[in-house]
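Continuing the series of single-chain predictions for the mutant panel. This is the parent chain; the variants come on the following pages.
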Amino acid sequence: MSFNDQVAIVTGAGRGIGKAVAMRFASEGATVALVSRTRADLDAVAGEIGDAGGRALPVVADVSDRSQVEAMVATVVEAHGRIDVLINNAGLSGARANLVDLDLDDWDTVMNTNVRGTMLCSKHVLPHMIARRSGSIINVSSLMGRTAEWGRTHYCAAKWGIIGFTQALATETGRHGVRVNCVVPGLVHTEVVEGYMKGLAKEKKVPYEEMYRRFASSHPTNKIVQMSEVAELMLFLASDRAASIHGQSINISAGYWMT
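Parent structure:
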């Protein structure tokens, strides 16, 4: 798969899955617009992409802020003249709490980043894709958008909402040559997850490797999803090989969730 001469926007690109996705698209020739609220993270990722021979454009923006999203899209179009791929990866899980104890500001922050951010980026990128009758938008949900978990009403609502948003938007864009899909990750071996497992291993007084094995064994494939695997799925969905995949929400959970 080659993305030479294509331009991809990746939100939440400063670390974790977003970073892995940005670097993978860059390795296939795409110019990647890196979007995050933290300049230092973006500059670090852009540096890594540049060192590997790729092209990156860091753009600081809060995806929940309409004016910042408008400015971000305008910056990308002014610099490169087109947008071929949008990866709506930016997201927050928020603090765990019963709904009756949940701070309303935390609810708003989670909903605004996950749902409003996905909507705003899609809304302002779409006119450029529609004008060229070509493009791929890939949203990011979670298994919390398939099932429920205690203390996660805000995160579950947001991630369920992204799946619904994906399907509804797909009914509007297909006739314009723009495909919209959603990736639904389960447990992914990010820096945050690794830190959590290490903390739990210390608490339980077992080696980290044993804790990792316990988490992996809860999956039918006896493994934990790697960030590189999520990036490969997104790369495929954005490519011409996925030309007939539209309006779908695809699990990547090492078999943990199968519906």
